[in-house]
Write a structure and sequence with these properties.
19% helix; Rossmann fold; 5-stranded antiparallel β-sheet; 38% strand; 6-stranded mixed β-sheet; Tachylectin-2, Chain A; globular; alpha+beta
């Protein structure tokens, strides 16, 4: 076999295959353009085994503005080898290009799972594809106009301890943020008699995030101070106790993402060179050094949908390919991993980013335990919820959420926020 992946974006697919340590020849290859697949080759399809280029599922997803599309790897005999859920784009062509990015993860999944039979369906017509493009472009135009005249205000608030069966999230304090910044990605820490909240603070002037810490006093936040700031965007702080010392991790656009240490909560963070850095381009990672485990998403492929896990072997994070999943609604981390309760907080990235948050099982990511959207908050006016965090004893539970504010400078805020990512070489 000369190549496992054939077609546009083969390099991305092959990169993920190699990154997961998949060095063996599986006996098949993946044609990334299903319309040219030969017998014996796998190709990108919808979950019914129809090549994506001709799938009615693609046109339906774009027409209905669902923000999500079921994808699979199938063969010409009608067998489906792996399934996932990705996001849709503003045209059929862009949606297909986005789906090709997850061919590598789907192939890793296929190598670890048995094929299932697909129910045959008829392909979409060219007229249906053109019509879906028109509808999706209209949706995109409306979103673009909205983004030009509004900006997102992100804030954090305490809530009552939720249970998976709860239909609502009861906010028990004020929402905390500011006009020239926003606070998001909270992580709560209770240490002795003090409670702390670590958050991303995004400065609208620079468009980059830094990590701040604030003491929690009677449901309010006091004395916020910067604990980590550098030339890159940093977010999603996670703090833990390891071998008698405080350690912390973040998400960053930089290629090098070290573990940090600090003396006391609220002190500045410094790089811990004794602990291995997180795998490059791992989004919203939660590392448990005691258990030697890390879970996140692969941002080099698709940081919203591709779930990855690593095990710590010596001083190296080793990928666990049998744990790979593709699901834009349930893959990306949305807070803490609570192994004692068997819960991992995740965020729904389909459609508008930050739509909802949920819980999945730590043992089985396909087991979805709960989901809450902004409509489920006890305080009205919010458009999305994104992150949920709680301390070990569940004394404090915090979430973040967002709403839209009118501003003639909404377009400029967005340009500034995206500017660093366009230039960052990490």
């Amino acid at each position: 076999m000369t190549a496992l992946f054939v077609g546009a974006d083969a390099e991305t697919a092959d990169g993920f295959w190699t990154r997961m340590g998949m060095t063996f020849d599986p006996g098949w290859r993946v044609q990334l353009d299903g319309s040219t697949a030969a017998p014996g080759e796998l190709f990108l399809s919808d979950t019914s085994g129809v090549p994506l280029e001709y799938s009615r599922a693609v046109t339906r997803a774009l027409r209905k503005n669902t923000g999500r599309l079921g994808v699979a790897l199938a063969d010409s005999d009608g067998a489906v080898y792996a399934k996932g859920v990705v996001g849709t784009r503003r045209t059929v062509a862009r949606t297909l290009a986005g789906a090709r990015l997850v061919a590598g993860p789907l192939a890793v999944m296929a190598a670890h799972r048995n094929a299932t039979a697909a129910a045959p369906t008829s392909p979409a017509s060219r007229a249906a594809i053109r019509g879906a493009d028109v509808v999706a472009s209209s949706w995109f135009g409306l979103r673009l106009a909205r983004a030009a005249m509004t900006y997102r205000e992100w804030a954090c608030a305490p809530i009552r301890v939720p249970h998976a069966s709860d239909a609502r999230l009861e906010v028990v304090g004020a929402w905390h943020s500011g006009p020239h910044r926003f606070w998001a990605d909270p992580f709560v820490l209770v240490d002795a008699d003090e409670s702390w909240l670590f958050m991303e603070e995004l400065d609208r002037a620079s468009g980059r995030g830094r990590i701040i810490a604030a003491r929690i006093v009677d449901g309010g936040l006091r004395d916020p101070r910067v604990v980590l700031s550098n030339d890159h965007h940093v977010s999603f702080p996670i703090v833990a106790r390891y071998q008698g010392h405080w350690i912390a991790t973040v998400e960053t656009c930089a290629k090098h993402n070290p573990v940090y240490s600090f003396e006391r909560p609220g002190d500045p963070w410094h790089e811990n060179v004794r602990l291995p850095a997180l795998p490059p381009h791992t989004a919203d990672a939660v590392a448990d050094f005691d258990a030697g485990a890390l879970v996140g998403t692969d941002a080099a492929t698709d940081g919203h949908s591709v779930l990855v896990r690593y095990a710590l072997k010596g001083h190296e994070w080793v990928p666990q390919p049998d744990a790979v999943r593709v699901d834009i609604g349930w893959s990306r981390g949305g807070g803490v991993v609570d192994t004692a309760r068997g819960i991992r907080a995740v965020q729904d990235c389909a459609g508008t980013y930050g739509t909802a948050l949920g819980w999945t099982s730590t043992d089985d990511p396909d087991q979805h335990l709960a989901r809450w959207a902004a409509a489920d908050l006890s305080t009205p006016g919010w458009r999305g919820v994104h992150t949920m965090t709680w301390d070990q004893d569940q004394q404090q539970v915090w979430i973040d959420g967002w709403r839209r504010r009118l501003s003639p400078f909404g377009w400029r805020y967005r340009v500034v926020e995206q500017g660093h990512f366009a230039q960052c070489q990490g």
